[in-house]
Amino acid sequence: xxxxxxxxxxxxxxAVALVIAxxxxxxxxQIEARSVSIPPPIVTVQTVAKAELPVTVVAYGNVTxxxxxxxxxxVGGRVLWKSPLFEPGVVVQAGEPLLRIDPTDYELALAxxxxxxxxxxxxxxxxxxxxQAARVEEAEASVVAAQARITRAERxxxxxxxxxxxxxVIDEQSVELGQFISVAARLGRILGANKAEVRxxxxxxxxxxxxxxxxxGVTLYSESAGHMLSWRGRVSRIEARIxxxxxxxxxxxxxxxxxxxxLHQAPMRFGLFVRAEITGGTVPxxxxxxxxxxxxxxxxxxxxxxxxxxxxxxxxxxSAEGALVTAGLSEGExxxxxxxxxMFEGMEVAVSDV
Length: 354
Description:
This protein is an alpha+beta fold. The chain has three domains: about 45-55 and about 285-350, conserved putative lor/sdh protein from methanococcus maripaludis s2 fold (Beta Barrel), CATH 2.40.420; about 55-65 and about 195-280, Beta Barrel (Elongation Factor Tu (Ef-tu), domain 3); about 70-190, CATH 2.40.50.100. Helices cover about 25% and strands about 40% of the residues. The chain has helices at about 1-25, 105-130, 135-160, 205; strands at about 40-45, 45, 50-65, 70, 75-80, 90, 95-100, 160-165, 170-175, 180, 185-190, 195-200, 215-225, 225-240, 250-255, 275-290, 300-305, 305-310, 315-320, 320-325, 335, 350. It has a six-stranded antiparallel β-barrel with strand order 3-12-15-14-13-16. A four-stranded antiparallel beta sheet has the order 2-21-17-18, with no helix packed on it. A four-stranded antiparallel beta sheet has the order 4-11-9-6, with no helix packed on it. The two termini are about 85 Å apart.
């Protein structure tokens, strides 16, 4: 009997627990099902207003001299005088003497050539007076040769003085006072200072806006000691070649008299890194959109009746200012300029009030 009771008791406890659990589940309040509406994403739009928009091309480059000249000795000798201006970084005027080489040997050569000419002229006169035709021809040849020697001697004597051929900046100086130099010895290098150039690498999409180089205005900027300096220049030429590495067109900007403070806000030094802004032509019937409005190369989303509509457009230029669109949009349409993680045709969105 006790064995039966010990067997039935756990079953009874289990049955009672099951009944209690069923009663608790049935007595639990029912949860009312409600539909939750998710608000559509909010986007910002730009209303299309077409206009004739100017194009400003921005590029960067270094200021260089329009001309560089390696100074070499045309005659040999000892350096007797060196100008204090013949030092790197100094500006020299056209015709400024820089070096003088010992002229003694060349003065002697000139005197001897003149003596030879006098002798040749006397021989010619004597031959003519004696009517000796053979001697006349020989004497005439001697006169011509003597005149050529004088010309050469005068040239050599002139070349004993090294003179700046134009307004220039001394870039290098490689000779000292008292040094003996030989013919073709390197003396230094000068940079032409009456013009400066900036070579700008431009992509093909920008070059077409400055084909009219006479109409293109150029302003160059550089920051110095916390101040923004500017200079005016002009497009000198668009080189007829393409850089094989960058696939860009070299566009050369020219600045007249870059060191003249009367013409410029400050001297434009060679080697200066500058930002160039070139005012190109205008694009009629265009609209400028932020780059965030572009999806791929030439697609945008237009807000229409609370939904997104994908639209293919014609983009003629993409720059830091934005994307210049000339076709594919109508006046007054609203272009979505907000980028969402997910955007697709027919997607419901709301326009921001801001």
